């Protein structure tokens, strides 16, 4: 398979050289090829991304800037993630892998923040072959096969960390995961120096879940009702209630999980429900991203059309910023 692509790649180089040579000396051709997106993609595909500092370097400033400019309305999550990831990456000898559990309503930025971490750690961003993403309903749908899933998941984690210690595992829809399944990766999250010759301490595990969203929203609502600034909400206002409610929630994927019991989750990261003004910011950013001139009127119209809760106050967007991409198409 690979050999075919290698042949094809060599062929591609030759052909492109013939074309470019008509106009340029050969020395610049190779430089040119190195910089063209297609050339680079082809090169990566054939020769592969490798598990070294050429492909994996953490950019702390980059993450800080991205969190600051691209993520809206999540001052708590931003701060926790920045600290947690920077601390972990700067630690030459971490005692265990980094384990983050992100909680909040849909569309509040949990997936997005994982993407920002990826983009500032792997040169290939989310396309990196060292990132492994699991979606409960897609990868582990049937309760009857839970034992198979467990051994499969263990093999995957072990195999991939053996390949590259700096691997990242993202588990989406934790709230839809069958209780008990995630506990099968517990040995890898513990404080072992190594396990059967594999060391897991460089890896990053991220769990995404809607569980706890109600609790977080209640806190945000209480602040709002008390006329307090949302930015005054601190991690300690949310985290204790969050970890308990996740532990005691049968639909959290972490129900009575030994991961919590044994304190293997380093941070529970709360994502606040988004308000109208945040939807506007998402909308403007989305328009820019689409290459459109950001237009306040269009974004306003789109934001007004969304559903907000609670019914009486209508403060928080029920779907966060999730559906605005498609909606903008409708309004522009
Ligand atoms: C890190 O990120 C900053 C901000 O995005 C960027 O200016 C800088 O070039 C990046 N550094 C590296 C080494 O990529
Ligand atoms: C790595 O994980 C993927 C799932 O994301 C799996 O398909 C693959 O077999 C794993 N690789 C190894 C070497 O175990």
Summarize the structure.
The chain has 332 residues and is α/β, with parallel strands linked by helices. Helices cover 50% and strands 9% of the residues.
CATH class of the largest domain: Alpha Beta
Instruction: Catalogue the ligands.
Output: 2-acetamido-2-deoxy-beta-D-glucopyranose
Roughly how many Å apart are the termini? 45 Å
* Helical percentage: 40-55%
Looking at the overall shape, the CATH architecture of the largest domain is 3-Layer(aba) Sandwich
Looking at CATH, the homologous superfamily of the largest domain is P-loop containing nucleotide triphosphate hydrolases
Low-confidence stretches: 1-34
Which fold name corresponds to the CATH topology of the largest domain?
Rossmann fold
**SSE order in H/E notation?**
HHHHHEHEHHEHEHHHEHHEEH
Q: What is the total number of structural domains? A: 3
Rg, please? 23 Å
Spatial order of the strands in the main sheet? Answer: 2-3-4-1-5
Taken as a percent bin, the fraction of beta residues is 5-15%
Backbone shape: globular
**What is the number of helices?**
15
Largest sheet, strands/sense/barrel: 5 strands, parallel
The overall pLDDT, averaged over residues, is: 86
Helix/strand/pairing category: alpha/beta
How many strands in all?
7
């Amino acid at each position: 398979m690979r050999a075919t692509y290698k042949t094809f790649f060599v062929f591609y180089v030759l052909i492109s050289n013939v074309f470019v040579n008509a106009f340029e000396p050969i020395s610049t051709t190779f430089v040119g090829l190195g910089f063209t997106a297609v050339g680079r993609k082809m090169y990566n595909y054939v020769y592969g991304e490798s598990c070294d500092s050429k492909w994996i370097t953490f950019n702390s400033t980059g993450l800080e800037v991205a969190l600051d400019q691209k993520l809206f309305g999540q001052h708590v999550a931003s701060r926790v993630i920045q600290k947690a990831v920077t601390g972990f990456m700067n630690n030459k000898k971490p005692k265990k892998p980094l384990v983050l559990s992100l909680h909040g309503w849909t569309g509040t930025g949990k997936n997005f923040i994982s993407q920002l971490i990826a983009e500032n750690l792997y040169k290939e961003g989310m396309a990196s072959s060292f990132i492994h993403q699991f979606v409960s309903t897609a990868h582990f749908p049937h309760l009857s096969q839970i034992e198979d899933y467990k051994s499969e998941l263990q093999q995957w984690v072990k195999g991939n960390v053996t390949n590259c210690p700096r691997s990242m595992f993202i588990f989406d829809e934790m709230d839809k995961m069958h209780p008990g399944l995630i506990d099968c990766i517990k040995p890898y999250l513990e404080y072992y120096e190594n396990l059967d010759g594999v060391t897991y301490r460089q890896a990053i595990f991220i769990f995404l879940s809607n569980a706890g969203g109600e609790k977080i929203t209640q806190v945000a609502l209480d602040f709002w009702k008390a006329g307090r600034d949302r930015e005054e909400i601190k991690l300690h206002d949310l985290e204790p209630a969050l970890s308990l409610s996740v532990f005691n929630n049968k639909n959290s994927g972490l129900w009575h999980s030994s991961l919590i019991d044994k304190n293997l989750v380093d941070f529970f990261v709360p994502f606040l429900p988004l308000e109208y003004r945040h939807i506007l910011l998402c909308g403007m950013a989305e328009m820019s991203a689409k290459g459109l001139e950001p237009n306040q009127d269009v974004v306003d119209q789109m934001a007004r059309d969304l559903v907000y809760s609670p019914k009486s106050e209508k403060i928080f967007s029920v779907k966060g910023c999730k559906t605005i991409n498609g909606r903008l198409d409708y309004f522009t």
